[in-house]
Amino acid sequence: MIFYRLAKGMEERARLQGSIRQSEGDVSFLQQKKERLEEELWVEASRWLQMAPSLPAAQGDVLPELTPIDVLTEPGQQASL
Description:
Radius of gyration: 15 Å
Structural class: mainly alpha
Helix content: 55-70%
Strand content: under 5%
Shape: elongated
Mean pLDDT: 77
C-alpha cells in the first residue's frame, strides 16, 4: 500500500510539474500544491524506510542505506525536490 501511495504521489507530482512548465500565468498555487505534495511524499518515504528493516523479506538480507530522496527519485534521474 505504501508503494501504491508513493507511485500515485509521484504521478501527481509529475502532472503538477508539467502544468507549472506549461502555464503562462501565476503558478504560485500550483507550486504550493507541489511543495505540499513533496512534503507528504517525503514523510511517506521516511515512514517506509523506518519500517523496511522489520519487513519479513528484509530479515537476513542486507539492505542498502537509503534516504527518502533515494526512494522518491526515479532511477537514472537526479533529485529535484
